[in-house]
Amino acid sequence: MLYNHFKQFKIFAHTYVLLAYxxxxxxxxxxxxxxxxxxxxxxxxxxxxxxxxxxxxxxxVAERIIATFFSxxxxxxxxxxxxxxxxxxxxxxxxxxxxIFGDFTLPYSKxxxxxxxxxxxxxxxxxxxxGLHALIDFISILVIPVLLYRFHRNKIxxxxxxxxxxxxxxxxxxxxxxxxxxxxxxxxxxxxxVSMFFAFRxxxxxxxxxxxxxxxxxxxxxxxxPIAIVWTEKHVRKTAQENCRKxxxxxxxxxxxxxxxxxxxxxxxxx
Length: 271
Description:
Layout: H1 2-20, E1 34-35, H2 36-54, H3 56-69, H4 71-101, E2 111-112, H5 123-154, H6 160-199, H7 206-215, H8 225-249, H9 253-264
Antiparallel strand pairs: 1-2
Helix pairs in contact: 1-2, 2-4, 3-4, 3-5, 3-6, 5-6, 6-7, 6-8, 8-9
Subcellular location: Membrane
Main location: membrane
Transmembrane segments: 81-101, 126-149, 184-202, 214-232
């Protein structure tokens, strides 16, 4: 939700700039140069939303880890943990933003022809923060298959009550794994594309400007998230119905063998 609000503010900021410069003289290239504070107004929502967003996936993964290994305590203090994770996410997001722009002053009279060139001394910091975002997303995605593998190894060795809890965790992790992989793939492309501009200190040119602004459109993949959620729910429901149908057709030892085969099956084949 915070991400969408900041994206809306970014749209308003770009709309303001377009309206402000719609009467700029074509024969005066300097008329199209932006003030540094205008660049800050357009770029700050992007960086702040990205900083807040990068802590969300690790928070969800940490929540699943706690729910896995401390299930009894998690049932009692689940809401408190959710509040703590939200606070940590906000602190990390604002901290990353402050690391880039904490001691930055806006020279109101200065103009630039390309917004990324408004902060030449911040290039290293920006590339470090964006690279850290991509690394954390990548590590978080790798943790989920490890948890799934651990669940499937321990599932048949616990009682029915714990087995039900493990089944619920496995279903949630399967759903999260698909969503996180989809999210991190496109987000990673966006982070790498933007960080390369600052890391290699590319020169200002029309091609680089198109490249950078095009990379900023990558987060629009979030609009397809509802489709991914609906597809995942249908796939999980269809798999559950198919397993129930097969179990009802079997009798005696065949039904028991089929039951344990499902539990012992690797996560990828039973998803």
